[in-house]
Amino acid sequence: MEYEIKPAGRFSLNLSELWEYRELIFFFTWRDIKVKYKQTFFGAAWAVIQPLLLMVVFTVFFARNFTIESGNIPYPVFVFSGLLLWNVFANGLSNAGNSMVANANIIKKIYFPRLIIPISSILSAMVDFLISIIVYFCVLFFYGLQSTIPSILLMLPLSLLITLCTTLGAGSFLAALNVKYRDFRYVIPFLIQVLMFMTPIIYPVSTPDMEWVRTLLLLNPMTGAIDLIRSAVMQVPVNQTAVAMASVSSLLWLIIGISYFRRTEYYFADLA
Amino acid sequence: MKPIIEISGISKRFRISHELQPYLNIRDRVSQIFSGKKATSTEEFWALKDITFSVEAGESIGIIGKNGAGKSTLLKILSKITPPSSGKIISRGRIASLLEVGTGFHPELTGRENIFLNGSILGMRKNEIQGKFDEIVDFSGVEKFLDTPLKHYSSGMQLRLAFAVAAFLEPEILIIDEVLAVGDAEFQKKCMGKMDEVSKSGRTILFVSHNMGAVSNLCSKAVLLRDGKIAMIDNSSKVVEQYLHDSVQMSGKRRKTISALDKSFTLQLPYWVNNAGEEIPSYSFGSDYKLRFDFEFHRELTFLNIGIAVMNKDGSRIFTSHSVDDKSFQSFSTYNGKMTFDAHLNIPDLAPGYYQVLFGVADEHTHDYVNASSEVEVILDIAETHKIKDGANGILWHTGQWKKVG
To answer: Residue B375 in 3-state DSSP?
Structure first.
């Protein structure tokens, strides 16, 4: 095995190297999951409690006080279908955005493809997703909507793929920025909050009455991802424009995020 | 056969920015915007400049130099942690680097979990770790606490566990930074034994250390770095000699101040004085000098034990001396304010040459106040004052008496 160490050169994705280090991705993910629920009383039950509680809060405070069009399904199911993927995005983004700084001591002492860190921090957020999807199906049973589960499972791969591409793209972008400008530590939670209201989670895409706002919503990849799941629950045709736009913009996020990360990763050890 | 590592023309530049004023308030900041003056200036600093050498397969190379000479930067470039600014390195083997033991250890995880995590970070495969698991646990000696979270381990136990994982790495090239400067004497011995085993098994080792004994024992060749440049490459005992010589020249110019770990006192790096109390750079053979310790106590202490150990350049301990062992030394009831102590060592006929003097300051439970093992050092330079005939080799310069009896 022969290789060269040279000054930081041109950008290359080097997926084969990432594959070589797949076990480390597994170990980092496993560590994050283990550590997350150590010394907590409820442990992994938190993954069940959180989305349920949010669902109740939104139902009580929004649906009761404002008339929100949730189509042919009860509002709790409507909001949960949005939260399901939103939580993957929000937790993944905040994990990934802080991941490089949190692992600075490792980055400064040993080499491995740096992308492993945001990737595994997002994967560890997926465990919560797996738990909450079970909770989601229970909610569907409760409202007698279990017949929609097969079509949800059909839509899930694409919507999850859009979500993960967006999360990894935006997450690695923020992670790289956070190494250089620690301001982003404070920006990330705020950003997630703002984005939550810019994503149709508690309201449907059709709510904003201005045309340009609806277009803006469609540019948000999470809109299309959530719309896919909702159309399956509501048994209505998929909004193809939304899904197409989501696919394209999530891919764009992925390319921009990873290439920025790759271009700056050489200096992480000097800056961290 | 081609060398396993070829380092050619490696340089590393850092940009340091200085704030022109230590504190800026918003008014200053705003006025700067209008006046167009910048609050910071940048300066370039070359941590490494044009480093070129190659390493043959199976060689053990020591890298030595003062703090700030660029040793760690060189290791970081070799381990791909940071890129060089120019130059290139060709490596023909799998590199594993140990710039720290226990990288990635997580206090919330158990010993068992940390073995897997740390092993994987160091580049071991999962089944490789599983295969060596029992040996690792055995080497570390913490089998009773395997399922206890690491945060409940003593620092010594954490260290042993960390080194045990590292000891079972099997790369073609191993890069080690000063990891042996820690732990108790017995454990250090165990580690050195393991390192020796690794180098004998034909693997290539690059080793940075302040422990000259370890370098000359373990490494056949050594590289001396000075201000980011290579000052010397030769067999290790020659380079160690040159390094110690440099250190003597340096001492006196810069007097380091050492703080106790709990901040209870500061101590100047001990230095040699003659009978008139004047500082001298070297100790000429046969004369009578003392090692001086200038303390400044920031809180009152009731017990203090100052100890020194004199080692030759092979790392053998020639002798040790502790202030508590000297019955005539009045054990003071309190130590406070500024106090100066002289150690009159009555050094016997030590042969001319360079010796490393390690020192420690301990409390009544023999806990060290200072961690002086690696960062600071005192050199004992016994200069040759008169030539005697060849054959005066060895630790002591002892001629003995010869008499014709028959």
So the answer is: coil
